[in-house]
Amino acid sequence: MAATYGYPEKLDKQIRVLTAVFLTLAIVDYLLSVANKYEHLNYASGYQLTTFAYFNDTFPQLFAYIPFSIGTGIFCTAITVHSNLTWALNDLFIIIASSALAMRFRQISQKLIKERDDFKLFQHAQLSFWRQIREDYDRLTRFCKELDCYISVIVLLSYFMNIFSLLIQLYRSLEFISLPIRKVYLIFSFGYLIFKTTMVSLYAAWINDESKAFTHILNSVDSTLYNTEIRRLLTQISFDKTALTGCKMFAVKRGTILSVASAIVTYELVLIQFSQANLYDTY
Questions:
Q1: Which tens digit of pLDDT belongs to each residue from 97-118?
Q2: Measured between alpha carbons, how far is 53 from 45 in angstroms, rounded to an integer?
Q3: How far apart, in whole angstroms, are the C-alpha atoms of residue 116 and residue 104?
Q4: % of the chain at pLDDT higher than 90
Q5: What residue intervals traverse the membrane (predicted)?
Q6: Are the C-beta atoms of 15 and 93 separated by less than 8 Å?
Q7: Phi and psi at residue 251, in whole multiples of 5°?
Q8: pTM of the entire structure?
Q9: What is the separation, in whole angstroms, between the first and last Cα of the chain?
Q10: H, E, C per residue of the chain
Q11: Mean pLDDT across the chain, nearest whole number?
Q12: 40 phi and psi angles, rounded to 5 deg
């Protein structure tokens, strides 16, 4: 398709901008989490926190068995930074893959729009033209299904991690917060998680949107120009479910973000009820 349609316009720039934004936000989120942890432990210890106490409280599962040293501290820090960046890059990968595929579908739409605007070309379009359009569309849908087979687990993991973290941050926000860095961290982290979840949902849903975007063009073809290839293409668009999925359990479409929002609200209400029940039990 590269020879026929060319490279997707502005895809490189979009990838660079998204990468810079996601990595920057991930690093800021990590630094704020470290500052939040340090502030909390320092306040709890009467502002006499040591490096050993910080790492011992942050990684108790490790330093309960091995002694603390500079090497183990650097190792734990590197693992933590790596895990935070991997989490961000996981979402970024879904967004970039979705963008590239959606832009390919858009190129088909743009080609049809160009032909329609130049009515003479549209009127004299041969059967081979429509066959090429249908074959290009079919090639993209097959690629989308193959891509989904490889990254559906990543999509499911992305939604699970983001929603779970959102619930945790919302639950923590119910507590009384007096420390300033903790307030900043909770607000930033909550916004960061909403941003990631929204971006993944919108970009992944973009594939489904673009795969059906030129249906109205095909339906507007004059009856004298209607042919078998157009009918086959319309049938394929109607019955093919071109979208990324989370291990086939759900397809990522525009409505997914509303489903995620309603699920977060539902589970948060449950957490609030448990929190109130625990509060009453203490009296």
A1: 999 999 999 998 888 888 777 7
A2: 9
A3: 19
A4: 29
A5: 15-32, 62-81, 87-105, 149-172, 184-206
A6: no
A7: -100, 135
A8: 0.86
A9: 69
A10: CHHHHCCCCCHHHHHHHHHHHHHHHHHHHHHHHHHHHHHHHHHHCCCCCCHHHHHHHHCHHHHCCCCCCHHHHHHHHHHHHHHHHHHHHHHHHHHHHHHHHHHHHHHHHHHHHHHHHCHHHHHCCCHHHHHHHHHHHHHHHHHHHHHHHHHHHHHHHHHHHHHHHHHHHHHHHCCCCCCHHHHHHHHHHHHHHHHHHHHHHHHHHHHHHHHCCCHHHHHCCCCCCCCHHHHHHHHHHHHCCCCCECCCCCECCCCHHHHHHHHHHHHHHHHHHHHHHHHHHCC
A11: 84
A12: -65, -45
Percent over 70 (pLDDT), the chain: 92
Structure token digits, residue 159: 């939604």
Q: Sign of dihedral through CA atoms 32, 33, 36, 41? A: negative
* Dihedral (Cα; 9, 15, 16, 18), 10-degree rounding: 130
Question: Domain coordinates of the chain in residue numbers?
Answer: 1-281
What was the pLDDT predicted at 283? 47
Fill in the amino acid letter for 252: V
Burial level of 37, CB count in 10 A (0-12/13-18/19+)?
middle
Contact by Cβ (8 Å): 252, 155: yes
In whole angstroms, give the CA distance from residue 64 to residue 137. Answer: 58
